[in-house]
Design brief:
single chain, binds calcium ion
């Protein structure tokens, strides 16, 4: 009976909450990720402080009067907030060469030497995707999109909302988490993901370091089997234009989840009989918003159910 009760509890949890929300309940169990979070908190605080400066306000007003920037739409940032980010970027770019050197980026942390190595890690992760020196405005906005939470949330398009409908807080969190993953995979922030880009982002350090640090979700595309299945259907899912929109990406992520354990299924060359399925590693922490920080552990409902059922069966037998 006890086992049935445990399974029941997990089922109730799973029915009530989305993947991200469910995982959020384990937040308090996660240790602090440390320095990188200090860097992100300093970035958020400094941005808020400097955005109140008259010179930056004036610059944002000038940008507001210009035609909307496609980059804002590609990363689903609201135009007003995007203009503030660009003004702040220009403020940081002291030599006005349209990219931030590592030293210019350190200005975010007021040149705090104790944060030099963590600051360097964040800087390199987002400045190196194009294999060129310097953090461009696109890379800076991508960084902000991935590691922080926009004060008023993402500016989703109609087809995004259709692909990721939401009627609960948990579903809202899932949609934001998928958008963060999209921003990681869309390395050049073109608003879509090509096959080479998809592969490059999967192989590259940004996704995995951000997961290790608990910055982005591991609820989707967490396992090689999922990735390989997604690669196999990429062309079909991308359609005639050969690239994935956010809506297509969201569908692909969700449809890949059932293939997570394909490597362990009967008929697979790697099948070696029943195995213990380990829960996915890595905390999933919500992005920093307004100086707050919350941590979320990225264990999918599917994995939790599997654990619950395994646990239940072992108690019944
Ligand atoms: Ca510069
Ligand atoms: Ca792209």
């Amino acid at each position: 009976m006890r086992a049935v009760g445990v399974i029941g509890l997990f089922l109730i949890e799973a029915l009530q909450f989305s993947a991200a929300h469910f995982a959020a309940k384990h937040a308090s169990l996660q240790p602090e990720a440390g320095g990188v979070y200090d860097v992100i908190a300093r970035l958020v605080n400094d941005f808020q402080k400097k955005s109140r400066m008259q010179s930056l306000k004036n610059r944002s007003a000038v940008l507001r009067a210009q035609a909307p920037n496609l980059l804002a739409s590609n990363v689903r940032q609201k135009p007003g907030y995007f203009n503030e980010l660009v003004s702040y970027f220009e403020y940081l770019d002291e030599n006005q060469d349209s990219k931030l050197s590592e030293l210019e980026f350190m200005k975010v942390m007021d040149y705090d030497t104790s944060l030099r190595s963590d600051g360097n890690e964040v800087y390199v992760l987002f400045s190196d995707a194009d294999c060129k020196n310097g953090l461009t405005v696109q890379e800076f906005v991508r960084l902000v999109t991935v590691v922080t939470k926009a004060p008023e949330g993402f500016d989703f398009h109609a087809d995004d909302l259709e692909a990721m409908p939401s009627s609960t807080v948990g579903e809202d969190q899932d949609r934001d988490a998928i958008m963060q993953l999209f921003a990681i995979f869309d390395e050049n922030s073109s608003g879509d993901i090509g096959e080479a880009e998809f592969e490059h982002a999967w192989m590259g350090p940004t996704l995995w370091t951000c997961r290790k640090k608990g910055i982005v979700s591991s609820a989707w595309m967490a396992d090689t089997a999922e990735y390989e299945w997604a690669k196999g259907v990429f062309a079909e899912r991308a359609g005639a234009n050969g690239v994935l929109s956010l809506a297509e990406f969201a569908h692909l992520l969700k449809d890949s989840v059932p293939h997570r354990n394909d490597h362990y299924s009967k008929g697979s060359p790697e099948y070696k009989g029943p195995v213990e399925v380990e829960p996915m590693e890595g905390p999933f922490r919500k992005p920093v918003e307004m100086g707050s920080s919350q941590s979320i552990q990225g264990i999918s409902i599917a994995t939790m159910l599997l654990i619950a059922i395994s646990f239940g069966l072992s108690n019944l037998l």
